[in-house]
Design brief:
With 533 residues, the protein is mainly alpha-helical. The chain folds into 2 domains: 64 residues, no CATH class; 422 residues, Up-down Bundle (Growth Hormone, Chain: A), CATH 1.20.1250. It is 69% helix and 1% strand. The chain is built from 23 helices and 2 strands. The chain has a two-stranded antiparallel sheet with strand order 1-2. A hairpin with a 6-residue loop joins strand 1 and strand 2. The protein starts with 13 loop residues before the first helix and ends in a 13-residue tail after the last helix.
Length: 533
């Protein structure tokens, strides 16, 4: 489907719609590839509400049968074949030092988005780092404590939907400030929990807030960035999550042995407060303003457009959720229980487990930024497929060795490729998102995927405890977390590979007419875009 305006068109502007469609269809417009490349609207301009965003131009529906001209599988096989073709040298990305140069407002907005995701990650990993300490404090097993992680992940879609709809209707800035403020209160209260039930209740509220933050920050960041810089900054934005993990590991090492786990939660609110203060000086997204100006009749119009979007883009929505479920299984399955694996299965100290986490996150940051950058040349799907293949090769090194140094090498390389694939995600989801739902669509897809993968750490912990190994040091048994993690991550890497191959690609799509409109308040249409081949 080729869509023309940010919120759909009414019968009063059909002439403009028809003119715009004719211009787009007759231009030298590169084809778009993807899983729904053969699911397109009828070629005629109807009286229906036209939904934001475009469908690939691989085919048109037959007016009699409602199916694409030719076999619907032609588009699928065509774009899979493209994945294995040599990248066009004309699409080679620019010097990264040039791409990193942003205007002051762009740099400030992106910094706030990164900090917001960092503080969410920091708080999340404060729980995973202290699983053993929390279990001892509350008189529970580690698998019981991981239910707090599960609850957090399960409730994130509620936050994504709630804050996403508010952000798409009323703007990104105020919802982000509210989200971060509430998050800080919950973070502080978590350190005062006296039992596991209270702690899980607080983490449930935190899960809703965490679910809303990513969509808000991602939409703000991606909408303000220059198109050609989107790949590398996508990697930097997503690696704020790994940086939060890294900060949590360092704080754990410095704080928990000396002051206890409660102090870790209290101290971690400091970057959250800084982020709140910075967010007060944000300006609203110009891309949202353009889309908003095209919407009339308020909420009634918005929900009508939303219904039409689901009708025309249902396959894209399902694909995005399934893909994000696989990606979240990959991330949480490779990170959340790894400190516990090092401490309980291998008997390493808390300090050594922290070192393992730090090394893994250094690899994650390197991989996320590098592969985010290189995706401007290789393409989003091809980059993620490469990461899946390479990452699977390092699973044995990640779990099988007994030597600490060798396990560190495995942790480093597994995270290079796990988070290398993740470095593409902010740009990828934003580019395939319908424009009027750029806060809701990526955030909700991300968090519904999180919901599906919510039990990753609990599955690993429970199965690891049931499949114990003899501990030759004292004759007792220890959980076999390594085997469970290895099998799960190997399977998920395979799923990510398949999903990347069959996915859609809209690399290079513009959210505003050009980047100067972000600075100058230009009124050009949000849906004028170019797509690289």
């Amino acid at each position: 489907m080729v869509a023309v305006n940010g919120a759909g068109s009414t019968s009063d502007d059909h002439g403009q719609v028809a003119s715009a469609i004719q211009t787009i269809n007759t231009s030298a417009h590169p084809s778009r590839t993807g899983i729904d490349s053969f699911v397109v609207d009828e070629p005629a301009v109807s009286e229906k509400v036209r939904v934001v965003d475009e469908e690939p131009s691989a085919g048109h529906l037959d007016s009699a049968t409602g199916s694409p001209n030719g076999s619907k599988w032609d588009g699928v096989f065509s774009h899979i074949k493209e994945l294995f073709e040599r990248p066009d040298i004309q699409n080679r990305p620019r010097n990264p030092l040039h791409l990193l140069k942003l205007r002051p407002r762009q740099a400030f907005t992106f910094s706030v988005a990164c900090l917001g995701w960092l503080v969410d990650s920091l708080d999340f990993f404060c729980v995973t780092m202290t699983t053993t300490e929390l279990a001892e404090a509350f008189g529970k097993e580690p698998s019981d404590v991981t239910s707090a992680i599960t609850v957090t992940l399960m409730l994130r879609p509620i936050g994504a939907l709630l804050f996403g709809v508010i952000a798409d209707r009323f703007g990104r800035r105020i919802p982000l400030i509210v989200n971060l403020s509430l998050f800080t209160v919950i973070e502080l209260a978590s350190g005062f929990a006296q039992n596991l039930e209270t702690f899980i209740g607080l983490r449930a509220i935190y899960g809703i807030l965490m679910g809303g933050e990513w969509g808000l920050g991602n939409s703000l960041a991606m909408e303000v960035l220059p198109v050609e810089s989107r790949g590398i900054f996508s990697g930097i934005l997503q690696m704020s999550y790994s940086l939060g993990n890294l900060v949590a590991a360092m704080l754990y090492y410095a704080v928990v042995p000396n002051l206890g786990w409660r102090a870790l939660f209290w101290i971690s609110i400091i970057p959250a407060v800084i982020t709140i203060v910075m967010s007060l000086f944000l300006k609203e997204s110009e891309a949202w303003k353009q889309t908003r100006r095209q919407q009339k009749n308020g909420a009634q119009r918005y929900y009508k457009v939303a219904a039409e979007m689901l009708k025309n883009h249902w396959l894209r929505c399902i694909y995005a959720v399934i893909f994000m479920a696989a990606m979240n299984f990959l991330s949480h399955g490779s990170q959340d229980l790894y400190p516990t694996f090092l401490k309980k299965q291998h008997g390493f100290s808390a300090g050594q487990a922290t070192v393992g986490t730090v090394v893994g996150n250094i690899g994650a940051i390197i991989g996320g930024i590098f592969f985010g950058y290189i995706s401007e040349y290789l393409g989003r799907r091809r980059t993620m497929a490469i990461c899946a293949i390479c990452g699977a090769c390092f699973v044995p090194l990640w779990i099988l060795p007994d030597a600490f140094g060798t396990l560190l090498a495995g942790a480093f390389f597994i995270q290079v490729f796990v988070q290398g694939a993740w470095g593409v995600i902010p740009a990828y989801l934003s580019e395939i998102s319908p424009a009027a739902f750029r806060a809701t669509f990526p955030g909700l897809a991300y968090q519904l995927g999180n919901l599906i993968s919510a039990s990753a750490s609990q599955i690993e912990a429970s199965l690891g405890e049931k499949n114990s190994l003899p501990d030759l040091r004292d004759g007792k048994t220890v959980p076999n977390y390594g085997r469970v993690q290895g099998i799960l991550i190997g399977v998920i890497f395979s799923c990510v590979l398949v999903l990347a191959v069959v996915g859609r690609e809209e690399r290079g799509r513009q959210f505003v007419d050009n980047t100067k409109s972000v600075e100058d308040g230009d009124d050009d249409d949000d849906n004028n875009f170019n797509v690289k081949a």
